[in-house]
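Ticket #4471: structure export looks truncated?
Reporter: QA, pipeline team
Priority: medium

Steps to reproduce: submit the single chain below to the structure queue and open the exported record.
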Amino acid sequence: MKQEPLRRWASAVWREPVAIFFLIAAGVMLAGVDARPPSRTRITISEEAVASTRQRLITTLKREPNTEELRAAIDSVVNGEVLYREALRLGLDRRDPIVRRRLIQKMEMVLEQSAGSYAGSEEELRAWYEENLDLFVAPEQRSFSQMQLGEVSDDELGLLETRANELGLEADVVGDEIARQPSAHSRAQRGMSEAETARRFGAGVAREVFSGSEGVWHAVRGAHGWMLVRVDSIQGAGPTEFTKVRGQVRELRAAALRETMRVKKIINLRQRYEVEVER
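Actual output as written to the record:
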């Protein structure tokens, strides 16, 4: 009984042409909601991009591109931009770890570049140098004389070592028994580190030079046979003078300032996000 009024109302509506028209129109409108074309986003290819594309064509073709070639290249640029934007819209950048890592690297570069390259005044550089002296410590250096002997017997070697100490030979001077060695010659080496000595004369010579005391000739086998070495002076490890490392101080301080600014910018950027770490 309750459904009877509803049937009578529906029957009356269907007998009215105007009501039928409005029902059909509403259905068409509802059906057409998803059929409407999506809103269009403008893509602008700047004059600089066109010029850059043209220059790439010149480099590739070894000549000036014609109109069709340039148009095709610009179409390729447009297609690439469309695909790029669609990929971002679909969130493909968030799903690909390689793309994600590359974007993070690019953002790091942007932050570093925006931090500037100011290194500081002369006073600031000197103050930073004093605060970071441990970064500018020069290794121990030794000046020594070396006398190349070539191949000699053990008996000859002991005699030559003893005779060199008895004569108190200086570099570029050889004594009687030593002078008779065909390959004997001497040379002074000034202010060398242990690493540099090892590169030039071998690890064995470096160990002998940097473990021996001053003023005593010692026999040691080098890269080119037996030789006598004598430590002439020792300069202990210590900070290098500011004037000698000023350029390095400037570079390191500028890098430190950039890193400080980068960290501050990241902290500011994080304020825009609410971070939740699920455990």
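Status: closed, not a bug. The export was complete when the record was re-opened. Leaving a note from the reviewer for reference: Residues 58 and 64 are 5 Å apart (CA to CA).
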